Amino acid sequence: MTLPGECVNADRVECCGETLKIEVLMSTAGYYIGFFCPKCGHYNRESGYYKTKEMADKALETNGFYRL
C-alpha cells in the first residue's frame, strides 16, 4: 500500500512543478532514501532507516534497498 505522495519504483517524481530526484536524506530516526521538495519540504520516504549515511549511500548506489 502506498500513501498519498509516495512513489514506489521511481527515480524521479513531480511535485509543485519541481522534478525531484531520489536521494539520501536524514531525520531524527536515521538516514533514509527518498524524495525532498525544496518548495514544499519532505515529500516521501522510499526505504527503511539506516544507522549511517555511508550505509544509505551504498544502498542507493547499488539500488540495494527495500522500497516501501
Structure overview:
The protein is built from 1 helix and 5 strands. It has one helix at residues 53-61; strands spanning 12-15, 18-21, 23-27, 30-37, 41-45. Strand 4 (30-37) and strand 5 (41-45) form a beta hairpin. It is globular. It is mainly beta. The strands form 2 sheets. A 3-stranded antiparallel β-sheet has the order 3-4-5.
List keywords for this structure.
three-stranded antiparallel beta sheet; mainly beta; 68 residues; two-stranded antiparallel ribbon; 1 helix; single chain
Order of helices and strands: EEEEEH
What is the CA-atom radius of gyration, in angstroms? 11 Å
Number of contiguous helices:
1
| Through-space gap between termini | 8 Å
Helical proportion? Answer: 10-25%
Blueprint of the fold:
Layout: E1 12-15, E2 18-21, E3 23-27, E4 30-37, E5 41-45, H1 53-61
Antiparallel strand pairs: 1-2, 3-4, 4-5
